[in-house]
Each structure stands twice: as C-alpha cells, then as structure tokens.
C-alpha cells in the first residue's frame, strides 16, 4: 500500500522566487489536506480539497499561496514571491470519504522542507 | 474556538519506565481526537484515534489513550517505553463540520528516552 508522497523533500530558494510543491495522496482517497509546520510547533491547517473542489482555506493562506487539485488526484501548492517567514515544513495528508462510524482519518506524507534565504 | 493544549513541552523518561503524555482540548461537541508521532525530519504517523464508544483506545506500538469528557482530556500512555519511542508527539482534534475536515494540533511534546 503506497502512502502519501511529496516532492521535493527539500527546497532551498531565494527570497522573491516562486516555488511549487507536489503531493500524491493515497490511491482513492478523495480528501487532500495541506498543513504548515514551523520549528517547535504543531502543524497548522492551510487548505483542503474534496476531489477537485477546494472546500476550506485558512486565513494563513495569503494571496501569495495557491493550491490546486485539478483532476481530484495529486495536488500542488505554489508560493509566489517567497519570504523568509515562509520557511517551514509543508505537510500533505489524505483521507478517504468520511464515515459516520470512523470519522475522517488523515494520513500524512513525509513533508517538504522549505528554506527561504 | 477549538483548541488543543499539551502542557508538557519536553519529557524525559528512562527506558522501561511508564509514560503519560497529557492532552487537553476545547471543543463544544463530542470531539474526534487523535495522537500522532513525528520523528525528526519526517511526517506524522497516526498512533490512535477516538471517535466514540469505549473511552480507552488502543493504538500501534503499545500505546493507549483514555478519553475523559469530564476533564476534557485525552492522555496518551505506554506501560514500558523503548528507546525507539523518542520522538515528538502531537494531539489533535478534528475541527470541521461533522467532526471532519481540518485538524487542530497541540504544540507537541518531545519525548527523550534515557538508557
């Protein structure tokens, strides 16, 4: 069973550059989540999709951030004009359709570590 | 607003000793609660979850957690810690509609295991 995969695992960029991350969810999981985690903190929710529809976006997701899931499979997260404050681990998670008896269990990928110089 | 508090930022235990990591939540309805573990530079691995029913839930790697509504707590326990348990542990509550959707995480507890 293949888990959630993320690419790249590490990204170093200069301030002002654009970066794009990719997430491939577990096959047949229809929900996909993005979180951001800074050092010493728990993950913070950014946005999530059910199939190709983006259902919720956090206020943390400024205009420089955009996420897509065009065919309801993989997703991309783009950050434009990166700032040093964007340095963090970006985590992706996926979950199957929620069930009344099991709720919505999210399975996480290994993350993409972004460093903005 | 929903929130999760992990009062202990760092805990050190000796190998073979018992472990309890504390988690308190703030949520209006019956919460769906989770514990995840994260090794350095890695993603999060699900240890266990509580949705309903038996308030004592069993997870992987010998962990268990007990949901106590009266105390708004969901503490994680293990009777005998192994050196490989050293990691960061996160408690989370599902905060979306119908207890689905986004997770709200605590700040995490770093577990160090002494030989």
Which radius of gyration of chain A do the C-alpha atoms yield?
Answer: 14 Å
Q: Which chains have the largest interface?
A: A-B, 29 and 28 residues
Main β sheet profile of chain B: 6 strands, mixed
* Spans where pLDDT lies below 50 across 5 or more residues of chain A: none
Explain what the structure shows.
The complex is a heterodimer of chains A (117) and B (115). Helices cover 0% and strands 48% of the residues of chain A. Chain A is an all-beta fold. In chain A, the strands form two sheets. In chain A, strands 2, 4, 5, 6, 9, 10 and 11 form a seven-stranded mixed sheet that branches. In chain A, a hairpin with a 2-residue loop joins strand 5 and strand 6. Chain A starts with a strand and ends with a strand. The mean pLDDT of chain A is 92. Chain B is mainly β. Chain B is 0% helix and 50% strand. Chain B is built from no helices and twelve strands. Chain B has strands at 3-5, 10-14, 19-21, 24-26, 33-38, 44-50, 56-58, 64-68, 73-78, 87-94, 103-105, 109-114. In chain B, strands 2, 5, 6, 10, 11 and 12 form a six-stranded mixed sheet that branches. A four-stranded antiparallel sheet of chain B has the order 3-9-8-7, with no helix packed on it. Chain B has a two-stranded antiparallel ribbon with strand order 1-4. The mean pLDDT of chain B is 92. At the A-B interface, strand 5 and strand 10 of A face strand 6, strand 10 and strand 11 of B.
Q: What's the topology here?
A:
The complex is a heterodimer of chains A (117) and B (115).
Chain A (H helix, E strand, L loop, with lengths): L4 E3 L2 E4 L5 E6 L6 E7 L6 E7 L2 E5 L7 E4 L6 E5 L8 E8 L11 E2 L3 E5 L1
Parallel strand pairs in A: 2-11
Antiparallel strand pairs in A: 1-3, 3-8, 4-5, 4-9, 5-6, 7-8, 9-10, 9-11
Chain B lengths: L2 E3 L4 E5 L4 E3 L2 E3 L6 E6 L5 E7 L5 E3 L5 E5 L4 E6 L8 E8 L8 E3 L3 E6 L1
Parallel strand pairs in B: 2-12
Antiparallel strand pairs in B: 1-4, 3-9, 5-6, 5-10, 7-8, 8-9, 10-11, 10-12
């Amino acid at each position: 069973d293949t888990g959630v995969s993320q690419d790249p695992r590490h990204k170093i960029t200069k301030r002002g550059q654009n970066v794009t991350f990719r997430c491939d969810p577990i096959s047949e999981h229809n929900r996909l989540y993005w979180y951001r985690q800074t050092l010493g903190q728990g993950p913070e929710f950014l946005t999530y999709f059910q199939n190709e529809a983006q259902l919720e976006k956090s206020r943390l997701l400024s205009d420089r951030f955009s996420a897509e899931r065009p065919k309801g499979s993989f997703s991309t997260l783009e950050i434009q004009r990166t700032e040093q404050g964007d340095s963090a681990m970006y985590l992706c998670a996926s979950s199957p359709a929620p069930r009344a008896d099991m709720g919505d269990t999210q399975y996480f990928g290994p993350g993409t570590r972004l460093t903005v110089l | 607003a929903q929130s999760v508090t992990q009062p202990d930022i760092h805990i050190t235990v000796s190998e073979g000793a018992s472990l309890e990591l504390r988690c308190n939540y703030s949520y209006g309805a019956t919460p769906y609660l989770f514990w995840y573990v994260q090794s350095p530079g890695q993603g999060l691995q699900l240890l266990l979850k509580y949705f309903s029913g038996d308030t004592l839930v069993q997870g992987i790697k010998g962990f268990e957690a007990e949901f106590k509504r009266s105390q708004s707590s969901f503490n994680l326990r293990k009777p005998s810690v192994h050196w490989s348990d050293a990691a960061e542990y996160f408690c989370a509550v599902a905060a979306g509609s119908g207890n689905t959707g986004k997770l709200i995480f605590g700040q995490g507890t770093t577990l160090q295991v002494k030989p």
